Every structure is written in C-alpha cells, then in structure tokens.
Amino acid sequence: MQRTDLAIQTIGLGKNFGAFTALKDLNLQIEPNSVYGFLGPNGSGKTTTIKLLIGLSQPSTGHSYIYGVDSADRSLQTRRLIGYLPDVPAFHKYMTGLQYLVLCGELFGFSYDDAQKRAYEQLERTGLNDAANRKTGGYSRGMKQRLGLAAALIGDPKVLFLDEPVSALDPNGRLAVLEIIQDLRESKTIFLSTHILSDVERVCDKVGIISEGNLIVSQSVNDLKKQYAQNRFLLRFDQDPTPLLAQIQGQPWCVEAHVGKNEEEVLTLLVHAADETKAKNELPQIATQRGFTLTRYEIVQPSLEDIFMQLTGAKNARF
Q1: Cβ atoms < 10 Å from Cβ of 148
Q2: Which end of the chain is more exposed for a tag (fewer CB within 10 A), N or C?
Q3: What's the pLDDT tens digit per position in 18-72?
Q4: How open is the CA angle 84-8-39, to the nearest 5 degrees?
Q5: Residue 307: exposed, middle, or buried by beta-carbon count in 10 A (0-12, 13-18, 19+)?
Q6: pTM for this structure?
Q7: What is the pLDDT of residues 250-282, one digit of tens each?
Q8: Helix (H, G, I), strand (E, B) or coil at 50
Q9: Which DSSP letter does residue 32 get?
Q10: Beta 214-220 vs 232-237: how paired, if at all?
Q11: DSSP string, 281-309
C-alpha cells in the first residue's frame, strides 16, 4: 500500500532491458531523516535503482514513491523533493562554479537573487568558496564531486540520492563529505550508494545489499552484524602465539585458527569456534597452561565487509 509517511517506498519495482533483467521485485521502506546505505557489486543494479527512484528511468514493473508521490511524476514540485549526485558529475566547462549553481537554482524556479544566495550557502558548505569564480573546466575531479553535491542540495530537497559521493575525494575531502552527510540527516533522508563499506558503517542507519538485481537483505548495520556473527575470537599475547596453533586447531569446537597481524603489526591469534561457550572457557586455559601471558581477549563481530562478501558470494570472502 502506498504510504505518505515513508521517505522512500518501492513496491515490486523492476527494470528490464530487453531480455536482461537489471532489477527484480524491489521492495523498500525507508524512514524519514535517516541514512540508507545501498550496496552491491558492480553491475548489481544500484545505479538502475537510483535512476528509477528519481524518475530518470521508467520501471518495467512496480512503482516507487517519494513521500507518497510517484517517482514517475516529473513536475517541478516533485523534483524539488529530491536531490541527486551522480557518480561522475559533468558541468559546462565555460561556467564558474557560482554560475552553475545559480543556473541550477533558477531551473528549480527560484529568483536570481534567491538562487545566488542558495549558491553561496552550498559553496561554503562544500568547501568551494575560494573556487566560486573559477571555471569548472579547471576543477579537479574532487572539486567537481563537491560541486555536484552542492548542486544536489541547491533546491533544499527532502531526499538526497548520492551515487559514490566520495569516490574521487582525498582523505580530507572524504571526511568533510561524511560530516556533511551526518549533519544533513537531521533534516533529510539520504540514499547512499557506495563501495566504501567503512563509510557505510560510520554514517548509515540501515543498509540494503543487492546482487544480480535482487535485494538480499535490508536492515540496520548492528542487527546485520548480530545476525551474521560467527563466534570469532581475537587473542593477543606477550609472546608469538604460533606454538599454540596446533593445540587449538585440534579442539573439537575449533572451525579455523590462524596467526595474523593487526594494523599495528602486532601478532594476534584469530579463532573461529563452532561452540562459543566452550571456546570462551577453554581458550584462556590453554594459553595459561602453556605459559602464555594473555594481554587481550575479545569476541570479534564481523565487519560489514565480511558480511557483504559472504552475502554476495565473493570468492575472496575472509575468515
């Protein structure tokens, strides 16, 4: 049933290109003032979904709604509900950043003075004040990405669609955009398509994972981690833990164990257990009996990357 209280809703949404089905029976319900991460391998249907949601493509089956308004309705009132940043934004090279944003504002129906005021606000928000009067043909790719974000915000949309918004940014620029997204969540709904899973963990309330046009899962990041928890333990010692491997691997509850290095290049022992209770009780005992000094012992939740690789059937899925 069509609902006006949802920021984004899809009902049986699908898209075919001839005999090829790019999206199959997509059903989403996304609450207002939230950040929804939309993930999938290349060619999984992410960009197709966004184009359907913003009305740039017509569905083969089903419907999509923005606050109860059909996405296929391309009236000015409807277009003001949404903002869109494509993965590779393009601009008229002869225009300055300010001129481009003013034009965008006027296309939304704002007066020149109002459009200019909005343009300056977004240039400041995206850190492009100093480049306002430079021609976009001289912008770096990262600057173009930020200008595209400014253009997406010029109409003060209620729902913002971002397709790989930080792919061209350096670490500082990426951090700045993530901070903007976190600030915007108080007043907007953000639909974020990205391949940088650490960013999703940082800013998203919920996540949807799509593969080969099918939505595999849609739920909160925390619930997803709990659901796919695998009884994994991390142990650190004063000594090299390699001599413990054979004994631990011989336990009936041990699925897999190996020694690796963390980000600080410190050797750690990683254990995947079939029985969490037995592993929790016996791992410290084994270490103590062998004279090892345990300095860190914790149950490790899977990362979003681990879950993503498992659900999408990635060949290199990690332990």
Answers
A1: 24
A2: N
A3: 999 999 999 999 999 999 999 998 889 999 999 999 999 999 999 999 999 999 8
A4: 70
A5: buried
A6: 0.80
A7: 999 999 998 987 656 678 899 989 998 999 899
A8: helix
A9: S
A10: unpaired
A11: HHHHHHHHHTT--EEEEEEEPPPHHHHHH
